[in-house]
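Example 132, ligand protoporphyrin IX containing FE.
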Amino acid sequence: MNSLTKVNLLLSFLYLLLGSLLGLMLGYKQTASSLFSMGGSPTLAHAHLQLVGFVTQMIVGVTYHIVPMLSRGKINSFKLGYLHTALLNAGLLIQVWGFLTDRILFKSFGSLLLFASIVMYLFNILKSMKWR
Ligand code: HEM
Ligand code: HEM
C-alpha cells in the first residue's frame, strides 16, 4: 500500500470515530442541547465529519491504490496528493467549527479550502489514469 493511501485511510478512520462521537452526543438530550447552545448546526458538523472526513477521504485513499493498479500507471504527484490531503483536513475542521458556531467566516473559508482540495484531487487522479 502506498503512503498516500495509508495516510488517507488512517485519517478517515479518525473522522469515523470523531463523527460518530458527535452523532452519539446528538442522540442524548443533555449533550445535544449543549452542542446546540454553541449557536450553529451540530447536525451539519456531524454529516460533514462522516461524509467528507470518513467517506470521501476513504474513497480518495482507495482510488490512489486502485487507479494506478488498474491502469498500470503511477500516481501523478505525491506532493500534490499530500497538499490536497492537508487542505481537505484543514478545510473540513475549519468548516465544521463554522457549522458548530454559525460563524460565516469559518464556514466560507473552510468551504473554499475544501473545494480547492477537491479540484486538486480530481486533477491528480485524472492525471494518474492511462486513457488507453
Ligand atoms: C455511532 C454512529 C452514529 C451516530 C450515533 C449517529 C447519530 C446521528 C443523529 C442522532 C443524527 C440526527 C441529528 C439531528 O437531526 O439533530 C444523525 C444525522 C446524520 N448522520 Fe449520523 N450517526 C452515526 C453515524 C453516521 C455515519 C457513519 C454517517 C455517514 C457515513 C452518518 C451520517 C449522518 C447524516 C448525513 C445525518 C444528517 C441527516 C439529515 O440531514 O437529517 N451518521 N446522526
Ligand atoms: C466543498 C465541499 C462542500 C461544501 C462547501 C459543502 C457545504 C455544505 C453546506 C453549506 C451545507 C448546508 C446546506 C444547508 O444550509 O442546509 C451542506 C449540507 C450537506 N452536505 Fe455538504 N458540502 C461539501 C461537500 C459535501 C460532500 C463531499 C458530501 C457528501 C459526500 C456532503 C454532504 C452533505 C449533506 C448530506 C448535507 C445535508 C446535511 C443535513 O441537512 O443535515 N457535502 N453542505
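Summary: The chain is about 85% helix and 0% strand.
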